[in-house]
Design a protein that fits this description.
The complex is a heterodimer of chains A (about 120) and B (about 120). In chain A, about 0% of the residues lie in helices and about 45% in strands. Chain A has about 120 residues and is mainly β. Chain B has no helices and twelve strands. Classes of the chains: A mainly beta (about 120), B mainly beta (about 120).
Chain lengths: ~120, ~120
């Protein structure tokens, strides 16, 4: 079974530029998550999709971050304009079901963003 | 709001010695608890999870954790450390309220195994 795919793996941009990350979840997984992991900290949820609808985006900085999941499969996360504090690893995860105690989130390798 | 606390960002353990990583949680409802491991330049991999069944949970690679409600803890242990256990370990909690299974992660423990 193929895992969660993300690209690019690394990205370096200057502040005020824009950047986009792509995620392809495990086939058949209805729920998709984007996390931000700043160096020295645990991942923090940015947004959660169920199919192509947003379940939770309460921690997404909506003035500069946006995400979409068209057709309920692939997803893109965009930052525009980027700030220095956006330097982090952006992790995508997917799970088979939205709710229930037996769900498990499967994580991709992440995209490491450096903003200079 | 749900949260977890992991003390000691770096943990050094000798090869063959006990690995003990502490996790304390805060939750307004009976929680679901998880331990994830992250190897360099890789995503997170689930080690084990507590979902209100047995309080002693066994996971992959010889790890286990015990849920103690009275202590609001979910400490991770492994009897004998191996060099391959060097990685970062995260404890996470989910309340699963209204179908939202948002995971709240701790800051992590970087485990170094000394030969």
């Amino acid at each position: 079974e193929a895992g969660v795919a993300q690209s690019p793996r690394y990205k370096i941009i200057e502040k005020r530029q824009s950047v986009a990350f792509w995620c392809n979840p495990i086939s058949g997984h209805a729920t998709l998550y984007w996390y931000q992991q700043i160096l020295g900290q645990g991942p923090k949820l940015l947004i959660q999709f169920q199919n192509n609808g947003v379940v939770d985006d309460s921690q997404l900085p909506k003035d500069r971050f946006s995400a979409e999941r068209l057709k309920g499969v692939d997803s893109t996360l965009k930052i525009q304009p980027a700030k220095l504090e956006d330097s982090a690893v952006y992790l995508c995860a997917s799970s088979l079901v939205l709710a229930g105690p037996s769900y498990e989130q499967y994580f991709g390798p992440g995209t490491r963003l450096t903003v200079t | 709001a749900q949260s977890v606390t992991q003390l000691g960002s770096h943990v050094s353990v000798s090869e063959g010695a006990l690995v003990l990583l502490r996790c304390n949680y805060s939750s307004s409802v009976p929680p679901y608890l998880f331990w994830y491991v992250q190897y360099p330049n890789q995503g997170l991999q689930l080690l084990l999870k507590y979902t209100s069944a047995a309080t002693l949970v066994k996971g992959i690679n010889g790890f286990e954790a015990e849920f103690k409600k009275s202590e609001t803890s979910f400490h991770l242990t492994k009897p004998s450390a191996h060099m391959s256990d060097a990685a970062e370990y995260f404890c996470a909690v989910s309340e699963g309220i209204n179908g939202n299974n948002r995971l709240a992660f701790g800051k992590g423990n970087q485990v170094v195994v000394i030969p």
